[in-house]
Please model this.
Amino acid sequence: MDMLWSGWGDPAKAAPLPDTVIGLLRDLLGVKPRDTAVHALEDIAVPETPLDSAALGALADAVGDAAHVRTDAESRIRHTRGKSTPDLLRIRAGDTEDVPAAVILPATHDEVLAVLRACGQHGLAAVPFGGGTSVVGGLAPEQPERSDGSERSGPRAFVALDLRRMDGLLDVDPVSRTATLQPGLRAPQAEALLAEHGFTLGHFPQSYEWATIGGFAAARSSGQASAGYGRFDEMVLGLTVATPRGTLDIGRAPRSAAGPDLRQLILGSEGAFGVVTAVTVRVRPVPRTRRYEGWRFASFEEGAAALRRLAQDGPLPTVLRLSDETETLIGLAQPDAIGSADAGQSAGCLAIAGYEGTEEETAHRRERAAAVLRSCGGEFLGAEPGERWAHGRYSAPYLRDSLLDAGAFAETLETATFWSRVPALYTAVRGALTETLTAAGTPPLVMCHISHVYENGASLYFTVVSAQGEDPVAHWAPAKHAANEAVLAAGGTISHHHGVGTDHRDWYVREAGPLGIEALQAVKRCLDPAGILNPGILLPTD
Amino acid sequence: MDMLWSGWGDPAKAAPLPDTVIGLLRDLLGVKPRDTAVHALEDIAVPETPLDSAALGALADAVGDAAHVRTDAESRIRHTRGKSTPDLLRIRAGDTEDVPAAVILPATHDEVLAVLRACGQHGLAAVPFGGGTSVVGGLAPEQPERSDGSERSGPRAFVALDLRRMDGLLDVDPVSRTATLQPGLRAPQAEALLAEHGFTLGHFPQSYEWATIGGFAAARSSGQASAGYGRFDEMVLGLTVATPRGTLDIGRAPRSAAGPDLRQLILGSEGAFGVVTAVTVRVRPVPRTRRYEGWRFASFEEGAAALRRLAQDGPLPTVLRLSDETETLIGLAQPDAIGSADAGQSAGCLAIAGYEGTEEETAHRRERAAAVLRSCGGEFLGAEPGERWAHGRYSAPYLRDSLLDAGAFAETLETATFWSRVPALYTAVRGALTETLTAAGTPPLVMCHISHVYENGASLYFTVVSAQGEDPVAHWAPAKHAANEAVLAAGGTISHHHGVGTDHRDWYVREAGPLGIEALQAVKRCLDPAGILNPGILLPTD
Model:
């Protein structure tokens, strides 16, 4: 099934807002109902593909069949940009400026190599496409004007390299507990295939239902159970990568001292260095027990101190998250229940602690973690908030669609830093968002949670809801800009798990420093000398 | 104190071999007592430094004082090569082919930058020098003939960039549990400084007494307590690096999705990309309890299965290692006790499991781990073997000196792979070493242990003892070559924690693949366009 082209996920799972929430939006944020009519897919005007028959023929040869080179309007619209709020607002408004020239569906590593070759020969750029769930502009390459004096003028065309046909489980090694997966596997498909062997990946980001293995690797994804299973980049043991210069095949041991870790050069490269065509990952036995529970803390500070204590001295739950006062009050910690009478946990901050594993191990871990949480001021709320969180864990993006429909604006952004800097980073980003949007006339609701903890620091994930303003994309831009500046100034990283794409690129360049960026551009020139892959995504074009 | 120039460590800690061992060497391996007279330091002929007064003046300017530019014979001999067995044999024989032109001692990051500038201006190469403990030829650069038509012909001279004056603890953040250390700190100095704040790094490789923080970072070191504290590359959160092109300053959060992890591009770069001038590391509270115990398994296979079970299903001891039958029999698992009647644990394989932490936590972990070890066939041997291992944990290199003195040859090599490949890798490397040396006329004793375990695989560490043969360096070369070939053929990595240097470079190039090497060479050219740093170390010169 394809994802809803104009929003998130499965159209059947749309989550209309309760009247109480609509009332709240109106009274609290000044949200005005707007003409919510979204263009129908078939009404969106898509220009003819700029590809000539020679290019189309070469692409068809690369994938063995013209049926795997799609130039119809619907395919191209469905591969236009990603799923950030500005992306949704633009496509709903019929803006097809970033539409790919074609959608190519290779089925093998060699076909990916052949597609890249064809792109090189015909002056095309290529954008790898997994689940299409980027929220940082990772699917809209810059298309610099041609300066090579070739006949066609105007921006260079690009093709979307959709990896959905590469959706196999290539290998399971039960002794080493590893599995080799193809990049186009959506996470639930991968889990189903692994479950046949008794294994799980344990990677459950909010995009779980739609995102793919290749995307997780390319963007350094982090899932909601990262405390227990680690980040995706920590799960990756081996990678096969198709680049315009040929194949990279890396990873002969879990850890090595043989030079810099080349895996970590590909992870986070967001398709700019090559197309990930196989990923060998660590897998674990499917847990026999899953238990999620709620805790209340008097303040975000107190709750954060408790999370830090567990991250530093253990034991770590498998899932560990903490909503700030506003997010708790609004009930966003449990999106399914938002607007219901008991969604907000009254005062304080809601934390969720979840345990997955064997019966005995989780029981013991839970007991010790509970003692720590209690000693840090936590009040045990039982299983209900945990179960509600688990039930609604993938539904926030559906809620966003409904908010957009109702005339509200909703967007998220995230960062991470070391523990000692967390309070200042929280205050700075919250302040920047609030001040910028308030000054623009639509005071926002800014909510935050910690959802990934490490011994030495944590992530902060912000959700902003406000009125849309006249031009919602333009309205949001200064707030996002101010938040990015606040992140850098407070010592945070520009992204903990969403990635860089085009939206964060200018700040990423400052974070990595000029020499760091030059080093990565040197790698880019080595692997992709013609700049075929994702021009302008992650790295500035030279 | 300086390390023994012709061997390992503190001369006062020399470990003479018991007569029983000498007898064993003679009877078992055909070791013949040899003229063990080692050149006296003052008898070694060192050519005059090739540096002219302009170069020496520029280097003195860079470090502020001519006293920090040393050209005396002793300083230069002490910075000639590292501590592999061939390195020791060569320097003992008075071979000064790889002597540096001078030893430079910068005290700050800016002085390092200035030294690199001076090197660039005067056509010199620079080799960063920490503890000087490389066992893979990481301190002997290739010195290609000058091809730039400059007046001086012959190989390019190089300076040793000794970082010992950069030995401070720059910062401790007790909230985040991080510390920033200078690169020239030896591990015991670093531990002492951290202990004043109640913290430990937990990094205890066999080179612990002499190796430095900068070296750990540059070479992806792994310590004997890696099961509990992780590898050094997992401890590093931030790096400051001086390159010929300027400064890299990386690491704003424990984890990030902002591009590839640049830290992991520097870690393992072995000084070829830049000089690490500060390292921010994760620290942990000094453990209140340390407990090491012995276990016996019937076979290496059975013991390895037990280690795998702990690594995959937990709980992991802080130290976990397993000697094969031969290493157990010889008693090398407890080097201090070698040759004593009870050093060998009779039949089977000796495992050591150690626990560090709080009283309560280690007691519980130990109890659960013991149950697992028992269920896997382990026989509990009590604390004595563990304490003996702990007491002798840094003494094997001293033992090597005595073996060399006694006319024996002793060397180590190591690799890692995924669990399912461990048995074949073990057999292949053992076979290659045994066959090659036996064919050369000196049947060796080949011992092995697993000392680093991961969920998905483990390291294998081999110790080889044999007669020296006529020319011990030449005698060893084909065996080492055969072992390297066996490692690659069996799917292992060419090094788990010793690194690449020059000794492993040709195999590393095959492991990383042509495109991987080209990508790293592109980074090298970006950061060090004149090829000043460590020419030929890690990467082939272009």
